[in-house]
Amino acid sequence: MTQFAVLDALLGGVYSSGVSVSEMLGWGDTGIGCCEGLGGEVLVIDGEAFECTAGAPPRRMRADETLPFVDVCTLGDSPGEALRGVDLAGLTAAVEARLRSRNLFHAVRIDGAMARVRTRVTARQEPPLRPLAEVAAEQIETEVSGVAGVVVGFWMPRIYQGITVAALHLHFLSDDRQVGGHVLDVTVDDALLRVSAFAQFALRLPLDADFLSHELSHGEDHRITAIEGGEPRSSPND
Length: 238
Prior knowledge:
- The chain is α+β, with helices and mostly antiparallel strands.
- Helices cover about 15% and strands about 40% of the residues.
- The protein contains six helices and 14 strands.
- The protein has helices at about 5-10, 20-25, 90-95, 130-135, 210-215, 220-230; strands at about 1-5, 20, 30-35, 40-45, 50, 60, 65, 70-75, 80-85, 105-120, 140-155, 165-175, 180-200, 200-205.
- The protein has a seven-stranded mixed β-sheet with strand order 6-5-4-3-8-1-14. Strands 9, 10, 11, 12 and 13 form a five-stranded antiparallel β-sheet that branches.
- Strand 5 and strand 6 (about 60) form a beta hairpin.
- The radius of gyration is 17 Å and the shape is globular.
C-alpha cells in the first residue's frame, strides 16, 4: 500500500500541497484520504475517487484535483464473509479477527446495507492553515438510517501512529452518492466484509516549502484518537 504525506503534518497545520488524483490512482484502486485544504473526505472505490464535502452531495473528483493526505492500495480478490447486525465495536472485532498479523497493514471494504451511519466532513481551510484538531472541532456531522453503501478504510499497526492513523480508520459512501464522509459510528445490517493484508508500505512525502521548513514531531496520540475516533468533545461548561 502507498501513503502520501503523514498525519502529524495535518496535526501541525502543514497541508498546503498534495498529490494529484491521476497520480494517486496509479498507486491503487481502493483508499481513503482528505480533500485540498481539509475541505472534506475522500474515498477511492474501484479506481474512482469521490469527494464528500459540506453543502453538496459526494461527487467524482477530477484527475487534476489534489489530496494532501491519502492511503491507497490494490484491494485484490480477497474472500469475503457475511457481516450482520453489528455495531462499530462488533465491526472492529470482526476486522481484527481477520488480521493476518497486528504488525501488517490491512485494507478493509464492506459492501451492503447499513442500519445506521454517522459521518463527518470538515470545512475547507484557507491560509493561514489551522491544525487538524482545530478544524475537526468544527466538523459537520450527518446521520442516516437504512442506507446501502460501501465502507472503505484501513487497519494500521499501532507503531505507525502519527505517520498514519493506528487501528481502524473508515470512510463511507452511499450507493446513491447522496451522503458520505469519515465514519464516526456505524451499525451494519447485512453486508460483505473483505480484508486484505499488506507487508509493504510505501511513504511518499510532500516537497513544498511549507512541509520542508517545518520539523514535525510526534506527541499527539490522544488527540489523534479523539479526532479520528469521533470521541465526544467536551462542552464549554465541562
